[in-house]
Amino acid sequence: MEEGAPESQIEKVMAHLLEKGIKVHRSDGTTRTVLGVIGDASSLDKGLIETFDGVFEVVKVSEPFKLTNRKYKPEGTVVQIDDVRIGGDEVVVMAGPCSAENEQQVYSSAAAVKRAGAKILRGGAFKPRSSPYSFQGLGEAGLRLLRTAANEHNLKLVSEVMDISQIELVEKYVDILQVGARNMQNYTLLRELGRARKPVLLKRGISATIEEWLLSAEYVLAGGNRNVILCERGIRTFESYLRNTLDISAIPVVKKLSHLPIIADPSHGTGRRDKVAPMARAAVAAGADGLLIEVHCDPDKALSDGAQSLFPSQFDQLMAELRTIAPAIGRSICVEPVARRGWAR
Ligand code: PEP
Ligand code: MN
Q: Does residue 338 lie within any of the structural domains?
């Protein structure tokens, strides 16, 4: 619709589409409203619709992903959790251990990431491990520890949900529901998350193309949940030197194709602690809306992903570097030095 088209004109177009038996997905942007039509549009006359008052243009979206397409929502989506905005000017950092292991580990890792300027605590309670003999996570007890630590430090919380049977439980504790790389094409899970009330962080599958990834996001959006954050976490290529190949170029590609916020995970993207900071810096420089970084209070003793987990001092250093990089590309990042506060337990 044209900028400032009155409600009466919008409703008239919607009524016309509905009369043709077509479901309309309405998106109200700050300047204009977009009416999205998905499915068989053969009964529609593009020329006729263009004559309706208030119609700006009729665009055919040829890509298979529709609701995730930037053509449907030209301005970027901002996923907002209270005062934390992902997809806005600020680069939002989510950090914490790979897995919640015990009270001391969760609490001191949370204190460390908060001190350095992270806004969101990460940590897995249900872990998708390649081997059934590896640590599988603490389950609900882990979620309880993570939530308590997040509240203590005024952090939001992101944690993985592996299966539809866990959604209700995980949703009670977290602010963002993480879908792991291995589940990117678990369409039953994605459909169910379309009905969830919390935002979804959708990691890219290890061999997924960008189009497949956006189609997975489409499942969540089509189910009614518009709050999806994409996360590039490295893909499997012929290069075997590192754990994965972090596809930095996916960031500007996704930015162009989709309105959804995109963050990068240089921890799983590289698998090596010494490679995390350079890739985090590159991701921010490439336009990522945020980062997901593994930080552990004592990485050498971690029950999972110790080799890629940063020591708190390394994370402090990285955050300081990002405070130089973000403004250079017109972004901000948490600048107030957070008061140093020891964890009392
Ligand atoms: C994680 O974030 O701990 C995780 C398991 O990530 P991925 O799904 O990207 O492997
Ligand atoms: Mn991990």
A: no
Q: How far is the CA of 107 from the centre of ligand 2 (A)?
A: 18
pLDDT at 337: 57
Indicate whether 263 and 316 sit together in one domain.
Answer: yes
345 part of a folded domain: no
- The residue nearest atom 8 of ligand 1, judged by CA position, is 180
| 125: CB partners within 8 A, 6+ apart | 99, 100, 137, 138, 139, 140, 141, 142, 143, 146, 159, 160, 170
Is the residue at 90 inside a domain? yes
39 and 154 part of one domain: no
Burial 194-203 (b: 16+ CB within 10 A, else e): bebebbbbbb
pLDDT digits (tens, 9 = 90+) for 202-235: 999 999 999 999 999 999 999 999 999 999 999 9
Among protein residues, the one with the nearest Cα to ligand 1's atom 1 is: 98
Specify the number of domains making up the chain. 2
Q: Which of 263, 265, 304 to mutate to test the pocket of ligand 1 (most atoms within 8 A of CB)?
A: 265
Instruction: Indicate the DSSP class of residue 295.
Output: B
Q: Which residues line ligand 1 (CB under 6 A)?
A: 98, 124, 128, 180-182, 203, 233, 268
User: Can you read off the two tokens belonging to residue 3?
Assistant: 């900028």
Q: Separation of 266 CA from ligand 1 center, angstroms?
A: 11
Give residue 301 CA to ligand 1 midpoint distance, Å: 19
The size of the chain, in residues, is 345
Grouping H, G, I as helix, E, B as strand and the rest as coil, residue 231 is strand
| CA pair distance 35, 67, nearest whole angstrom | 10
Work out the burial of residue 169: count CB atoms within 10 Å of its CB; fewer than 13 is exposed, 13-18 middle, 19 or more buried.
Answer: middle
Calculate how far, in angstroms, residue 14's C-alpha sits from the geometric centre of ligand 2: 46
Query: Residue 244 CA: which ligand is closest?
Result: 1
Contacting residues for 212 by C-beta, under 8 A, at least 6 apart: 184, 185, 205
Average pLDDT score, the chain: 95
Ligand of minimum distance to the alpha carbon of 122: 1
User: Is 68 inside any structural domain?
Assistant: no
The Cα 36–Cα 61 span in angstroms is 10
* Residue 139, domain extent: 79-328
